[in-house]
Amino acid sequence: TVNGQDLWQDLVTTAAFGGTEKGGICRLALTHEDRQVRAWFEQTCKALGCTVTYDSMGNQFARRAGTRNDLPPIMMGSHLDTQVTGGRFDGILGVLGGIAVLRALHAADISTDHPLEVVNWTNEEGARFAPPMLASGVFGGAFTEEFAGSRADTNGVTLRHELEQGGFVGQEQCGQHPASAYFELHIEQGPVLEAEERTIGIVTGVQGMRWYEVIVRGRSAHAGTTPMPMRKDALLAAARMIEQVNAVALAHAPEGLSTIGIITALPASSNVVPREVRFTVDLRNPSESILQVMEEDFLQRMQNCAEANDVQVDIVPTWNSPAVHFDPRCIDSVKTSAEDFGYTMREIVSGAGHDAVYVSRVVPTAMIFVPCLHGISHNEAESATPEDVTAGSNVLLHAVLKADKI
Amino acid sequence: TVNGQDLWQDLVTTAAFGGTEKGGICRLALTHEDRQVRAWFEQTCKALGCTVTYDSMGNQFARRAGTRNDLPPIMMGSHLDTQVTGGRFDGILGVLGGIAVLRALHAADISTDHPLEVVNWTNEEGARFAPPMLASGVFGGAFTEEFAGSRADTNGVTLRHELEQGGFVGQEQCGQHPASAYFELHIEQGPVLEAEERTIGIVTGVQGMRWYEVIVRGRSAHAGTTPMPMRKDALLAAARMIEQVNAVALAHAPEGLSTIGIITALPASSNVVPREVRFTVDLRNPSESILQVMEEDFLQRMQNCAEANDVQVDIVPTWNSPAVHFDPRCIDSVKTSAEDFGYTMREIVSGAGHDAVYVSRVVPTAMIFVPCLHGISHNEAESATPEDVTAGSNVLLHAVLKADKI
Ligand SMILES: NC(=O)NCCC(=O)O
Ligand SMILES: NC(=O)NCCC(=O)O
Question: What is the top-level taxon of the source organism (chains A, B) (predicted)?
Fold first, then answer.
């Protein structure tokens, strides 16, 4: 078993990098705070006897040698970046859980056949550089390195620039790294495990998710002199579209989800009727075919709404991550590992995207979920218990050891 | 009569300061572009023999001496700042019209008893420093100089700082400047004169206007894992509030107006349900008592909407400019001047706020409107004809001469 106290101490230590007043974390990818936690990760792993390398997307690989170093490594990991107002477990738990596994093996003086690696995937959240899972996406062949490097934050700074500034560009071409299996430990970020009082989620796959940018064009006009019937108010039209985006999810309840996270209106003056509104749309469903129906429903509703409100609408798809089904053998390793400890468990489909989504395209992959308080995530109030995160790391340890013997 | 060609040439010349690709103007108060047009104004007036002074709010006064300089001056003017995507007539016409009057008197070698002044009021639009009519508001006693100076733009830069940087702080305390009358020429910014094919609007007053900031607080949550019924989506609630704000105007049609010009959502990440949305509300009505009813209706609807959507709402009043009735004698001077030329005309209540609103609290005031294309303003497509702007300046000239004889 892993040492739960050390693991918890690591969670506390790393929470200082970008820690917020409200007890959350603001550690956007490749910012000063992210560089701090990356340095901590590198030093901590080196102190455990690992070698640390980078690939060309700045993904960090901390490697503990095996007895047969010709075998491709078994990887564990997740990400160290967070949302703007993120929590203390999302992502980092999968990395620190990997470190806890290495420590446990070290303490018990156990050698594995395969080398073991703990990986920190760059820019998982997509909060600074959209879309999410960008560097693991390059690793899995979903994005080209050129596309990923060209992604810019709201100030126009590119991911490529920040990788170079930070000295994070390694020799190895991203995606050329061999691996025999990948296990990612993560908080559920949803309410299911907590509600059913189960400790471990055996993640069988990840739902499909699609992103769009909606651009509504009306006509700017003076707030004090333009009669209501003469307006082409892009914001009023957008408000009605937001209602319709919500209706798309409700029409496919309970699985269907829709979210609008970002909205801007121009020219952004109190006494000017907005001429242009832009907002993001995030649609999700575990079923790829229902997600397709949701998309068509969404597009139709936006068109209808634009016509009814005498505005123009353009809809640009910005991300499409199809539903994923993880590797049966890896899933089984997770399941039997949870059984080893007698943990309560259930199979579960992830609502959130994870680096495992793209890694699974090229490496046999599974995930382990542990509960989080009230299912709250992407929120500074995100919380999980020491017992649950330790249990998850124990399952990670055994799953890795089982994979080592396959 | 004024020289319409010179006037039009001045409109063309000044349109270069902040001119946009789409033929509009972006000349926010006290920016580089505004400093340019202020310098042009000063030089042009000095070339006409005026002395130019500033008061403590950076208001510019260009003075042509009268035969009895003990009399308080008759003022003409408006503002040189614009909206972010503003037009080529809003504001500047009232200043250039004043210059056209001085030129006409010069050319005809006419002296007035009263000194005449052309005034450029600082930051009328409120697009950079809210609320609008800030410096004329200090002049009229509506705002303290401290309040006005402390207003900051979206980068946190204050009006006071920009006045000092530009060297626009004059010796004279704002509001201490004596005046015997004030006439402001402006485009209507609405559709009435054009629709009725009238050249001159005799502006009898300005409708009441009230601004608010609405802050909606929900709970941030993960877009992929949070079931729709468990969300407290601040943006969905705000969208429903926007619909209700629109309904407030419709309930008081056709005079009642409501506008939402600015909206922001936090934490502004595509895969996070927004926890906080802020938007501005602008309510207007020519009747102060109906405007009061609109306000109560608005507040009630926001509360109902917040309750129905399980979010919190706070509403902060940010500006209140009561309905204004101009000086009967000044109105009459405008009317008889329009009659002098045989222009078609009508009385009209201004839908937009103007510097005249606050100046009228301390100086007998009236305004002159001319038509603008399709009533479009606060828009780069804003347009007016050379004939109409010349006609308006002719009325301004005669109104000033009549006031001089009172
Ligand atoms: N785990 C996680 O929050 N990833 C972000 C990608 C998503 O939006 O699901
Ligand atoms: N004239 C003008 O556009 N002034 C701005 C103040 C208002 O919102 O009415």
Answer: Bacteria
Instruction: Spell out the alpha helix ranges (H) of A251-368.
Output: 288-308, 328-341, 355-359
pLDDT, tens digit (0-9, with 9 covering 90-100), for B269-309: 999 999 999 999 999 999 999 999 999 999 999 999 999 99
State the alpha helices, DSSP H only, in A251-347: 288-308, 328-341
The sign of the dihedral angle between the CA atoms of A37, A43, A46, A48 is negative
Helix (H) or strand (E) holding A91: none
C-alpha A271 to ligand 2 mean position (Å)? 7
Residues 6+ apart with CB under 8 A from A109: none
Tokens of B85: 């995507």
CA gap B318, A295 in Å, rounded: 41
Task: Please say whether the beta carbons of B338 and B345 come within 8 A.
Answer: yes
d(CA B280, CA B266) in angstroms, rounded, equals 15
A90 in a labelled binding site? yes
Predicted structure pTM score:
0.90
B71 CB burial (10 A radius; 0-12, 13-18, 19+): middle
Residues 6+ apart with CB under 8 A from A108: none
Burial of B304 (0-12, 13-18, 19+ CB in 10 A): middle
Which residue, B88, B90, B87, B112, is CA-closest to B101?
B112
Least Cα separation, residue A40 to chain B (angstroms): 27
**pLDDT tens across B344-399, in order?**
999 999 999 999 999 999 999 999 999 999 999 999 999 999 999 999 999 999 99
Q: Which ligand number lies closest to the CA of residue B89?
A: 2
A114 is in an annotated binding site: no
Query: Mind giving me the DSSP string for B120-166?
Result: E-S--S-SSSSSSSHHHHHHTTSS-HHHHHH-B-TTS-BHHHHHHHH
Measure Cα distances from B5 to A302, B22, B110, B368 in Å: 49, 24, 20, 20
Strand pairing report for B221-222 and B272-273: antiparallel
d(CA B387, CA A175): 69
Res B249 pLDDT > 90: yes
Taking CB atoms and an 8 Å limit, are A225 and B84 in contact across chains? Answer: no
Tell me how many residue pairs between chain A and chain B have CB atoms under 8 A apart.
264
